[in-house]
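I am writing to request your help with a piece of structural work I have in hand. Thank you for your consideration; the sequence and its tokens are set out here:
=====
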Amino acid sequence: MKLYAHPFSSYCQKVLVALYENDLAFEFRMLAPDDQAASSEHEALWPLKRMPVLVDEGRTVVEASIIVEYLALRYGGPVQSGLIEPTGRCDSVLPGNSARRVPGATRTLCGADARRRCR
């Protein structure tokens, strides 16, 4: 597992907390102006060049909250997303009202904006 990130970014710190607290092994690829190799790899994975980006067994996962949800679903551990049920399923969140959740909906969605699908 590789994480492309910078330690000063709060978004990257969110993912780092999940990785360290869940005791997951990963390679940290720091994105810095003087490291062209890491920057080129990062751009090839995510042309928008936003961070963090996680690569796990050939799967590329982008955006901090999505990465934390992915890690919780795939590996479990003490750090869980608020949208993950202990059974490994997600609740459907109604758009525009992140406080209302519909457990066990036929179409399972993640995220307050209800645009990302869980598997």
